Amino acid sequence: MSPNNAYQQLEKRFRRIHLLRSIGHLLRWDGEVMMPSGSSGIRAEQLSLLETESNSILRSRQTGVLLDRAETSAGTLDGWQQANLREMRRLWVHANAIPNRLVNAFHRATTEADMHWRRAVEQDDFRVLAPHLEKVIAVVREKGRFVGAALGCSAYDALLDEHDPGRTTADINRVFHELSSELPHLIAAILERQSAMSPVEPATPVAVARQKDLGRRVMKALGFPFHKGRLDESLHPFTEGTAEDIRITSRFDKDDFLTGFMGVLHETGHAMYDYGLPQAWATQPVGRDRGMAIHESQALFLEMMIGRSRSFMNFCAPMIARTFGTQGAGWSSGNLYRLATQVRRSLVRMDADEVTYPLHVILRCELEEELFSGVLEVRHLPQAWNDKMRLYIGVAPGGDSKGCLQDSHWPLGYFGYFSTYLMGIVIAAQLFSALQRDNPDVMRQIELGNFAPLFDWLDRSIYCQAAKLTTEQLLERATGEDANSAYFLAYVRAKYLTA
Amino acid sequence: MSPNNAYQQLEKRFRRIHLLRSIGHLLRWDGEVMMPSGSSGIRAEQLSLLETESNSILRSRQTGVLLDRAETSAGTLDGWQQANLREMRRLWVHANAIPNRLVNAFHRATTEADMHWRRAVEQDDFRVLAPHLEKVIAVVREKGRFVGAALGCSAYDALLDEHDPGRTTADINRVFHELSSELPHLIAAILERQSAMSPVEPATPVAVARQKDLGRRVMKALGFPFHKGRLDESLHPFTEGTAEDIRITSRFDKDDFLTGFMGVLHETGHAMYDYGLPQAWATQPVGRDRGMAIHESQALFLEMMIGRSRSFMNFCAPMIARTFGTQGAGWSSGNLYRLATQVRRSLVRMDADEVTYPLHVILRCELEEELFSGVLEVRHLPQAWNDKMRLYIGVAPGGDSKGCLQDSHWPLGYFGYFSTYLMGIVIAAQLFSALQRDNPDVMRQIELGNFAPLFDWLDRSIYCQAAKLTTEQLLERATGEDANSAYFLAYVRAKYLTA
After folding, report:
1. Is the separation of the CB atoms in A49 and B16 below 8 Å?
2. Angle formed at CA A292 by CA A288 and CA A293, multiple of 5 degrees
3. Measured between CB atoms, does A79 come within 8 Å of chain B?
């Protein structure tokens, strides 16, 4: 067998993994949007079968042998193939670093914890979750140690690498520091400024069916290809699928259309990235997104930088009025913009404005590191959470469900994930600055309803590269430098304190 | 390895096949109900992967070895296990009789023919399909020969056996003869009688949303467990799923609510059977339905014998009026009953009344046998179809799309399938007679909205046995004899010429 033959065989294996994953996407979408409540048992078994199946391809000895062979003469491969081989190896290392018993222990611990998390939320009592979260953390620590040994890095860096390849604790700590030292007094200044303005008109109630209709209209305007995707409703907004069939959801609140609308924009940002990835590599690891920080940057970019801009509001205010059949000062483009840019000391990350959002995330990342290292005991989490909320946001929850129980990430074993939200918004602001540098007319075009210049730039800068470059290389190519939080701070100052 | 150990290992393998099939069900449901139009490419690949995967378990040498071992001391197994082993072997024989190249040829030929069938329907021209249908028939013939050799029966009997285990050409020809010699003059007599009556009030238009609402209400009354199932809309009504998650659909026509309503009853009949199968055997071959003739009998039973009865119409007329907000003579129970029992010389099987329905099916079965044996050339099918329509139903289509192109069965390679519809209605009438013999009060209970006696009887007689008995044994146990078309003829005479 020639080395290139080995590479071809690997492509075939990863094509199969891609197909298995695409089925899993659909099953998860259905589980959240369509599935009858009593069918969760068989759904869990179906998902577990697909997971086991693709894991067994990834973890098979033969895949390792093929990787070794293909790498011995990687020189005969072209640039994309080499990058693909690198990504295959990366996935292989992550999957093979962990012994089988730990895979099972992780599955058991997170299934248990997820179940108790739901109960804990219902009962507004973290103590229902605490012992199960302890087990998850123990397993996650072990997982981090194994993967860290394989990658030659610390256990926590190994977790970061899974979701945001190449990212280190040092990187994120630097960004934390830059933002957490600046944002609190920026927020104070913004709040003072906003309270001095005339009061914002609150949005009046709008039937959910009309909100969905608006969502579909704005997605259409943005270029969402409805022949390969859908918009539906679920408890939490999400995006599932591959470029050949992407399903996004939002949640809709009769009394607050903006939540659902921003959810649609956020998820459309995710979806447009997935659609924009190069078709020729759709079934291969190199054809996927470059990690969750970049993915999140695309969602936050469309929701925050574009969706909460004056230009966008000027474009869509008439569409909103037409779709809702509303009129009056509350529905003016100016008032809608003010609604979308209200800064608030609020409790829930998912509802946070773009200025306080990073602090919500930093709080989680810091607590997560402390839980992981053992500095913070699980049972003290609610107290630590509330203390940090008071410190960073200036407000603390009455109960746990709007406090340390509000996200499912930790019970599900997602440690090292929250930082992708933070890097996501930092990257989004940096991309926004580069976009305007490269195309000064882009916001005026958006105001006219022409989104082609925006998506052409995103395509050239981000989408078309998929996972070919490292995140650092990708950002340098698009913006001239690696992730730099100064752009976010400058963006906030310009938008909230100068304009 | 002990023989019982071999049996246990087989159960494990078939549990995996069950899970893979259950994923396929969901993907097919989604494909018809939810999927964006442009996503059919990846969906076909996903389904093919699942099919290949479960086929490879069934066709693996190891499964054959385990079957041999388990059979050497089947005496140590209990009755259900023995029946399960018999069913496993049956599936194994069908799957292993065919060489790999033929599996692929079947897949290619039917995929091509299906595509051209859709075009042919659009263009109302059978010639678009003809050459592709010829290829399908050639492959199906070869398949029949291989399976026939393995089962020790004729090639066509081998095809019948796949969908209705144990059924032979001799069986169905006998039933054809009994029905096709009686029905045409029965139909003439019924039409004469109906034309002498006062005219039926046609149904007025009803919004589709209300029709769906009615569908859900009547399903609820029948006991459909909505926490494990759904009702949706699709081009053709169908049922997909396992007892843990069943999705049924109907099609809804604003101008003819009865079509959608009867579709709901038909599919609910399928679903109630699937739900009623014994839970302990849910993942095993013996826990499935006893072939498609029995399955179809359950659907036709609920749609025809129950749904198109005076008692049922008396029960649901007030529900219909309430749900639709309608009133007047057209919506009286009496007029609705007459609407549901109108006999018509019509062109389309799916819209046929219960009296002409068997002739629509017999026509297909006869033509199919002639196509299969080569007596009828494919290019002469439209003419042969129209001739037989005139002979049996007394009306012939203007074009092919309402003629020999109206079903997708043949392009998809489903030969030996149509007869299950015929046996289904014969069995349904026979069960209806036995039900009334065992429980003379059952229709009065239905009129009162009490469906428990009906479903208790079906559960005891059919559902609880799954595939443990042969079809013949199952029918003898429930009714005292094997399938007998005299019950259907007596049912028609009593309902349409006497009552």
Report:
1. yes
2. 125
3. no
- Residue A282, chain B, CB below 8 Å: the answer is no
Q: How far is A23 from chain B (nearest CA, A)?
A: 7
pLDDT at B1: 56
Annotated catalytic residue, options A267, A296, A303, A366: A267
State the best of A15, A18, A19, A26 to mutate against chain B, taking most chain B CBs within 10 Å.
A26
Sequence-ordered list of residues with C-beta below 8 angstroms from that of A196, at least 6 positions apart, any chain? none
Average pLDDT, chain B: 96
Residue B351 touches chain A, beta carbons under 8 Å: no
Q: Do A39 and B245 touch (CB under 8 A)?
A: yes
Decide if pLDDT at B469 tops 70.
yes
The answer to whether residues A139 and A105 touch, using CB atoms and an 8 Å cutoff, is yes
Q: What is the rounded distance in angstroms from the CA atom of residue A20 to the CA atom of residue A14?
A: 10
Assess whether A122 carries a catalytic annotation: no
What does pLDDT average to in each consecutive run of 10 residues of chain A (499 residues)?
83 98 97 95 94 94 97 94 97 95 94 94 97 97 97 97 95 93 95 94 94 98 98 95 96 95 98 98 97 97 98 97 93 96 95 95 96 97 96 93 96 96 97 98 98 98 98 97 96 94
| Two structure tokens written together for B379 | 């290019």
What are the residue boundaries of the structural domains of chain A, listed by start? 1-96, 154-499
Q: What is the pLDDT of residues B187-198, one digit of tens each?
A: 999 999 999 999
Mean pLDDT across chain A? 96
- Residues A146-176 pLDDT 10s: 999 999 999 999 999 999 999 999 999 999 8
Count CB-CB contacts under 10 A for residue A424: 27
- A154-499: CATH topology is Neurolysin; domain 3 (1.10.1370)
Establish if B41 touches chain A: CB-CB under 8 angstroms: yes
> Chain B 208-237, CB below 8 Å of chain A: which residues?
225-230
Element (H, E) at A468: none
Residue in chain A closest to B20 (alpha carbons) equals A46
- Residue A245 has its nearest CB partner, among B35, B242, B244, at B35
Tell if the CB–CB gap between B16 and A49 is shorter than 8 Å.
Answer: yes
Chain B residue with minimal CA distance to A33?
B34
Nearest residue on chain B to A41, judged by CA atoms?
B244
- Alpha carbon dihedral A319, A325, A329, A335, in 10-degree steps, equals -40
Cα distance between residue A191 and residue A204, in whole Å: 24
